[in-house]
Amino acid sequence: MKALVIRITFFEAFFKVHYTKTSRLSYPIPLPTSVAGMFGSMLGLSRRNAARTFTDCVFGACVDSSKKIAENRENATYMLFSKLKQQNRGKGVETISILNEPTYLIAIGGDESKIMEIGNQLSKAICYLPFGGQNDFFVKDWEIVGNFEIKNSEFVSNYIPTMWIGEITSGTSFQILPVNHNLADIDKNFTFILNGCVKLKKERMNEINTVEVSGKYIALYPLHKFVLVGEWRT
Amino acid sequence: MKVVQVSILGKISGNVNADEVIGTRVTLKKMYSSSGEVLPFVSARAVKYAIRDALRNRGLEVDPFISDPKATEALRLADTGDPKKYVDNDLFGYMSTKGRGKTAERRQAPVALSYFKAIKDTPVKSEFGARFPRQWAGKVDDNPVPFEVEIAEFVGKLNCIMYDYIGKFEDGSVLDGGERAKRIKNFAEILLAPAYVLPRRTNSLNIPEYIASLVVLSENGPLPIYQHLDYDFENNRISLENLKMITNREEIVNKASKILFIDYKGSIGDLPQKIEKASVGKAVDEITKFL
């Protein structure tokens, strides 16, 4: 199996943490589902077609080591509608976390011929501009890094179910956030690695596909291991 | 895929996109970066609102929205979802919710706009004012209530992308050529002139003061051009060095059909090769013809 890796920078980005409604948080790294959306738009696929095309593909992303992730805060006014008190609408202000100029390495993995074909298509032109979570957040720059071999690794430098971590290497910075996934039954938390890497538990070492790019181990996951919504579900 | 990409640098002054009121202070929408920068902005939503108003003033039909106070929460206010009739449903897309568990009807916008955000750290000042008791309210003897309004003056950047499916719909139908061209021309004119008034204004009408626009027409999909329009604050002019980098990037030069530059201040002499100077009128005509 091969993986195609693209370096992409956004002016701003926001990848909503699923349970946050008013004080909306952003995942620091796009989940495989968001990465699939980016590749889908670059290839000009509708959501439904992308879901079909990417059935046997794996996705992942990691923070590009040369850039630090900076988080912005934006205030947003919200309005609550109450069924009982229609005249008395609650109004308030909450903050939204927005990422400032993040750079990622995003990867799609799969059958070699399919990945080569996708690479050829994207090197000629991209169809739609991918967005950083929502279409107000534009891409600043992108470049194809190349094709890489997918292997098993004992290290991960992007994200992983927290329960699967055996050891956190010295100097690693990370965030733990809940993710709607079915990779592990009990714990729904994912550890997002911003810098450095973690070592997998011995029994998990053969389970994760990773692609190594300039010292970073990007773990790749199939889409069906995450909760899909809308046309992606079909 | 044909696309038109536009990047605009412009100056914005005052309390344009007002944020929440804290006590008696009307704040300004701004981001705080982790390195301590304060970056005021006008949200993409506010810019679209202003453009939608300008389209309405030009006689084009815009979505009045469906309002049903008796419906369940998510369905109380919805987009009409008729892009053939309403120009804003066509340009900016729509999402018409159908209720819990049902997939919403939607149109992916053929026109996307970014935030109009300051490109460097900007000081935010406050202006003071007072609300005096009104005679008609019968409270003549009450004391005046002081308030503050946050204001800022900043050079910001607004990015836009226009795809070629404006006036083309999922069911395969296409608007009559004249109507389609009218929509593209009106939108391009309003955006590039600029002929829209930003929604909040405390001191005066708030029309952004444009400095320069970069317009790239491409038959080969979007190109990485947005980072190449920048402002040189030391010399108080557009950064020519950054603009030159466009011509150094083969993937942009080889794929772009045309690169136009609108200099609103007339302050730039010679432009780098392959970048053509254009008036607003010429750029609008080129965009309409191209798409």
Explain what this protein looks like in three dimensions.
The complex is a heterodimer of chains A (234) and B (291). With 234 residues, chain A is mainly beta. Chain A has three helices and 15 strands. The longest helix of chain A is centred in the middle third of the chain and has 13 residues, at 112-124. The two termini of chain A are 26 Å apart. The model of chain A has no long low-confidence stretch (mean pLDDT 87). Chain B has helices at residues 44-57, 87-91, 177-192, 240-248, 250-253, 280-290, and strands spanning 3-14, 18-22, 25-28, 30-32, 38-42, 66-67, 77-78, 94-96, 105-107, 111-113, 116-118, 125-131, 145-163, 209-218, 231-232, 237-238, 256-263, 276-277. Chain B is globular and about 70 Å long. The mean pLDDT of chain B is 89. The interface between A and B is medium-sized, with 33 and 36 residues.
Largest interface: A-B, 33 and 36 residues
User: Rg of chain A to the nearest angstrom?
Assistant: 18 Å
The computed structural class of chain A is: mainly beta
Number of helical segments with 4 or more residues of chain A: 3
User: What can be said about the biggest beta sheet of chain A?
Assistant: 6 strands, antiparallel, barrel
**Strands across the major sheet of chain A, in which order?**
1-6-3-15-14-7
Low-pLDDT regions of chain A:
none
| Residue share in helix of chain A | 10-25%
Number of strands of chain B: 18
Mean pLDDT of chain A: 87
Instruction: Compute the number of helices of chain B.
Output: 6
Order of helices and strands of chain A: EEHHEEEEHEEEEEEEEE
| Terminal residue distance of chain B | 10 Å
Helix percent of chain B reads 10-25%
Task: Please state the overall shape of chain A, judged from the principal axes of the Cα atoms.
Answer: globular
Largest beta-sheet characterization of chain B:
12 strands, mixed
Question: What is the 3D shape of chain B?
Answer: globular
Please state roughly what percent of the residues of chain B sit in beta strands, choosing from under 5%, 5-15%, 15-25%, 25-35%, 35-45% or over 45%.
Answer: 25-35%
Structural class of chain B: alpha+beta
Could you tell me how far the N terminus lies from the C terminus of chain A, measured between alpha carbons in angstroms? 26 Å
